[in-house]
Amino acid sequence: MSNVRDPTSEAPKKRVKISATVRSASSRHEVVVSTGGSEQTLAVPPKASGQGSNVNGGEFLMLALATCYCNDLYREAARLGIPVESVEVEASAEFPGIGLAATGIAYRAKVSSRAAPSEIAELLRVTDAVAEVHNTVRAGVPVTLEQS
To answer: What is the share, in percent, of the chain residues with pLDDT greater than 90?
Structure first.
C-alpha cells in the first residue's frame, strides 16, 4: 500500500473547456486548439489532395494520450517532489477498419530521473490514475454530433 496521497482529492473542481477546430479547403488548412479560451494554431499539413489533414484522427488520438501522460508526469513529479530529467511516452492502438473503434490501446513511458526506481514506479502508477485523456477514453464518454 502506498503512502502517497490520492491526487484526485487535490484536483481542482473548476471545469475548463478544451476545443479543437479544423478548417479545411483546397486553398487552406488551419488547426486551432483552445484551453480556457486561450487559442493557439498548430502547424498540421494538409493532404497532398488539399482535402483534409495529412495527420489522421487515430494518430492525433495517440498523440493526445502520449501528450497527456507526458505533461501529467511532470505535473505529478513536481507535486511529489520527484526530480525528472526527461520523459518519453509512446501510445499505440489498432484500428480494424472504417467506422470501427480502436482496439489494443496501450502506452509505455520512460522517465529519466535520479530518484529511486520505486519512486518512479509510484509516479507512473499515480499519473496513470489521474491522466484525464486516459480516463476519458476508459470511461467511454459519449460523443454527440451537434447540428450547426
So the answer is: 86
Closest CA to 120 of 108, 112, 128: 112
Q: What is the mean pLDDT of residues 122-146?
A: 97
Per the DSSP assignment, residues forming a β-bridge with 20 are 33
Residue 129 backbone phi and psi in degrees, to 5: -70, -25
Express the helix, strand and coil content of the chain in percent, nearest 5 each.
35, 30, 40
Residue type, 55: V
Q: What does pTM read for this prediction?
A: 0.88
The C-alpha cell at 98 is 472504417
Closest by CA to 89, choosing from 62, 70, 104, 71, is 70
Is the confidence at residue 3, as pLDDT, over 80? no
Instruction: Give the Cα separation of 77 and 85 in Å (integer).
Output: 11
For the chain, list the domains and their CATH numbers: 1-50 (no CATH), 56-140 (3.30.300.20)
Q: Give dist(CA 52, CA 26) in Å, integer.
A: 9
